[in-house]
Amino acid sequence: MDVRWNSTYLMLHRLLEQKNAVNLYSIEYGKVDTLSSNEWDIIKNLTTALKFFYEATLDLSFDDASISIVIPLISLLTRTLQVRSENENEIMINMKNSLYDSLNTRFSYIKRQTSLMAATILNPRFKSKHLNSDELDLAMSEIISFLTDYNNNSALFRGTDNVSLMSTAPFVLSTSTSNIQQDKEGLWDSHDNTPNQMESAGSEDQKTVLKEKSQNNLSEPLRVLQRNADIYCYWNSSPYLTLRKAVLKYLSASPTSVPSKQLFSAAGQIYTDRRNNLLGEKVEKLLLSVYNIRVFSYEY
């Protein structure tokens, strides 16, 4: 592949950690040419820029990751690449510009996908925060159109929206960003420190009950749910039962190859030199146990 941003970041990050050891080895043995002060500064700036891509990859690789995180990640990455600091040299500026252009080329179609916009506003951690007014209208129309078609011949307005469901797993409520622990200068800093523009939105010009319920959901503060909490558990106990059909449709898993690669890695750890005669049937059972025992909180 032409781009290996994460591998490059991990390599440079590790080299920067061992800076003193590398310089000391070069001085004592003289067999390795050490880097100049300017080259070390370049590596430091490179790791700062690539760190955000590494964080984005990790966010997409979690088992409970949803496609609702795609638009916020692209928005945050674009924003961080546009930030300029005083100590950046021409090399860093050119690199950020190159990353910015590559990001736009690869993901320019993202904000034209109404299903992704709908997933974003259904995520209680993001809602309309990373969408402009036109994109928000498209997302709302997508959700309302789906719900209208789905409930066309059913009792849509039974007044059950005030009934709460018992959650199958705990989720953490929070009203401030102080409970969200992050590293300094992380990818999500601009998201956590920016107020939601929809918090003060009223219910004017709402023509249907569906639109009113959607607007009520959007008008709730983002801090109702921590960003690292389980959004599926939140919706399982949410009072907006009318919107749950849309949640089941749009909050799907992100299409990454990470879980399958992890499965192959786990199989490789099971097949060792001393356990190379295991039957495939037993290996399948072991893998099934490893990846599903967490569902039962390791209680068996």
From TrEMBL:
Pfam family, one: Dimer_Tnp_hAT
Main location: nucleus
Renumbered residue ranges of the record's region Disordered: 183-207
Keyword terms of this UniProt record: Metal-binding, Nucleus, Zinc, Zinc-finger
Localization: Nucleus
Gene Ontology MF: a single term: zinc ion binding
Record domain HAT C-terminal dimerisation: where: 224-289
Record bears the keyword Zinc-finger: yes
Database matches in SUPFAM superfamilies: Ribonuclease H-like (SSF53098)
Positions with biased composition (Basic and acidic residues): 183-192
GO annotations of cellular component type: nucleus
Full protein name: HAT C-terminal dimerisation domain-containing protein
UniProt organism field: Parnassius mnemosyne
